[in-house]
Structure formats: C-alpha cells, structure tokens
Specification:
Blueprint: E1 5-11, E2 14-19, E3 25-29, E4 35-39, E5 52-58, E6 61-66, E7 71-76, E8 82-86, E9 104-110, E10 113-118, E11 124-128, E12 134-137, H1 142-147, E13 159-161, E14 167-172, E15 177-182, E16 187-193, E17 202-208, E18 211-216, E19 221-225, E20 231-236, E21 248-255, E22 258-265, E23 268-273, E24 278-284, E25 294-298, E26 301-305, E27 309-314, E28 320-324, H2 328-340, E29 343-345, E30 350-352, H3 353-361
C-alpha cells in the first residue's frame, strides 16, 4: 500500500489531503515533509480509491468534493468533527444511468456557497455552507445531453473566478465549451461551444483584469481573449514529445504578471508572461508526461503533486525541489492507519480484519 494524494488544500504551513488509495485524511508539513494521519471518513470503505477529488477551506473547515465517495464531507480542522451531506440524483430532471462514482472534479467557494463542478455527475451541486442544504442545477446541461448522449465526461479542472461580476467560469476539455455560472441568478450560461471530441476543447481558463487566458488543447495554443471571449492573440505551445498529440494541462494559476500552466498529459511546465505574451519553459520532460493531479501555491512556490511525490517550483527563478512522500518515516503512516482501523498490513497491500479472518476460516 502506497501513500498517494488525491485532493488537497493548504492551511497555514500544512498540506491537508485525502489519500488516493485508501480512506484517509492526512496532513503534510510543507517545511519538513512529515506526514500525519488525521482520520478516516465513516461509512466509506477503508480500501476505496480516489474518494475525494478536490478540497477547499472555509472558516477552518475542509470541504471535500466526492469523486468515488458517496457524500460531500465537511471536516472541522479545530475539533476534527466530520459531517456528511449525501449527494443524490433524485431531484434531477435527468437520471441517465449514472451510478455513484466519478462525481465531481473541482470546487469553488463564492461567499457562503460551495459549487461542485461535474465530472460525470449530471449537474452542478451548490452547498449552502451556513444551512448545509444542497441544491442541484441541471437544466443548463440539456444541450450536452441532447447532442452527446454517449459521452459521459463533462467538465474537469480549472475555474476562473469573477471580479466585480458575481460568478465564475469553467471549461470543458471534451465538449469544447466555456460556461459561466451567475451566482446572482443561479443560472449557467454557455458562452462558447464548438464541435465536441476527445481532448479538442479547452483544458484551462484564467482571468487577469480585462483578459481571459485559455489553453486550447487540440492546437496546443494559449488564447488571449477579451472579456467577451473574442480571441485577440494565439500563442503556440511547442509539444516536444509529439506535435500530433493534443496537450492536456490540469490547470492554470496567475502569479504576479505570470500565468503558470501545470501539466497533466503535457511534457512541460509553462510560465506565460501576460505583459508581452511570451512563453518560458520552466521544466521539460523528454520521454514521459508528469501526470500531475493537483497544485497549490505556498510562500512563492508552486507545489505540483502526482500520486507519490510533490515538486515545489520557485515561481520567480523556476528552480525546483522534490518532496518525496514515501520516506521511511512517512511509511509509518500506513501502519498507523491500519492499527487504528482494524486492518492487517503486509508488504504490498492491506486487508480488512473481517476479510482476513474470513479467509482464514474459509468463509
């Protein structure tokens, strides 16, 4: 059993995260790299994988977006109290044949509401963080269902938050669409939509003053747009592994006068100068993709993580260091989880005590 990250946020000098291959919430000290097991979510299988895809923090509480879990989780970092809000399709107009799993991939908090953007779930979920009531919005997805009934991956990563406007924008890599959620009216509008296709759309969206920046995967380009999404300039991103394969960035973030693009199925970490629209390659992989699954900024460093390690990049000079999660001391975390949850640990995996006894007794 290995320690992997799937969904995280930074609180003070610690990275709080959910484990990728087990039911567990941990925290990692970003200064010394030490990991501490905190708790597991009740009523979720201990050996479930990729339970939570995104974590946001609000008023000292972690908001965990379910990916393969059944519920939205609110975790209080002060008293470690866990509250669960069940996600259901009962109030949705379109049920499809959706089953629990692959629900949401990204979350944003506006005011006292958390918004969960669908990955395969057929709608947006809005959670009132004061009353903890959950509401669903799905009428805006009619066009997607009508045109692409067989496609099940809707939206993925990256959200651009509004400034004076009340709302946020998000993009679809597969449906090639730009959407706006107006939080005043609780309505979702389709700003732009082209022909759909595998990885033909936008993988990233960022906002800086009077400009939007989008990564168009099919042509490996950054599109500099005005506030009406009219493309003002296209800047080519050279894909050094293969020019024929669309690039795929997991997200983007602005810092000072720069836009950083974090790679998933792309062979480079890119820093884009929003002043003169020039590109600088911070790091290039020549034989494989890094497959980062998330990122955060802390003390002028960009922390990009995959399953089993974290690369921390200096956002000014581009230098980086690696935090290896699987140190000998951190491996003790798995043993701690097992001992506190009645699990047996062997060299390669874990097994629940009940299943282990059943195996021994032949039932």
């Amino acid at each position: 059993m290995r320690i992997g990250i799937h969904g995280s946020c930074i609180v003070n000098n610690e990275l709080w995260f959910s484990l990728s291959h087990m039911n567990g919430i941990c925290r990692l000290n970003l200064d010394n790299g030490e990991i501490q097991y905190v708790t597991s979510v009740p009523h979720e299988d201990m050996l479930s994988e990729y339970l939570y895809s995104d974590i946001q923090v609000h008023d000292n509480k972690l908001i965990l977006a379910p990916f393969n879990a059944h519920d939205i989780v609110i975790f209080d970092t002060k008293n470690y109290e866990i509250r669960r809000i069940r996600v259901t399709t009962e109030k949705l107009r379109r049920k499809l044949d959706w089953e629990s799993g692959n629900m949401f991939y990204s979350t944003t908090i506006v005011g006292d509401n958390a918004y969960f953007i669908p990955y395969r779930f057929p709608g947006i979920a809005r959670l009132d963080l004061e009353s903890e009531e959950i509401y669903y919005l799905d009428d805006w997805m009619d066009n997607f269902f009508n045109e692409y009934d067989n496609a099940r991956i809707f939206f993925r990563e990256d959200i651009a938050e509004g400034r004076k406007e009340q709302g946020f924008w998000f993009v679809s890599l597969y449906y090639n669409a730009i959407m706006k959620y107006d939080t005043n009216t609780d309505k979702v509008f389709c700003i732009k939509k082209r022909d759909a296709g595998l990885r033909k759309g936008y993988s990233c969206i960022s906002r800086s003053d009077d400009r939007f920046y989008l990564v168009y995967s099919m042509k490996s380009e950054i599109h500099v747009c005005d506030l009406d999404f009219t493309v003002m300039e296209k800047v080519k991103i050279n894909n050094r592994i293969s020019q024929d394969i669309p690039i795929d960035f997991i997200g983007s973030i602005t810092f000072e006068n720069y836009l950083f693009l974090v790679p998933y199925a792309s062979n480079k970490l890119v820093r884009f100068n929003m002043g003169d629209n020039s590109i600088c390659d911070i790091r290039v992989w020549y034989t494989e993709y890094p497959y980062y699954t998330g990122f955060w900024v802390y003390k002028n460093e960009l922390f990009c993580y995959g399953n089993y390690k974290i690369d921390a990049y200096d956002m000014f000079d581009g230098s980086y260091r690696t935090i290896y999660i699987e140190t000998e001391s951190n491996k003790k975390v798995i043993a701690d989880i097992c001992s506190k949850n009645n699990m047996i640990l062997n060299e390669d995996s874990t097994i629940g005590l009940k299943n282990f006894l059943g195996f021994l007794c032949g039932f």
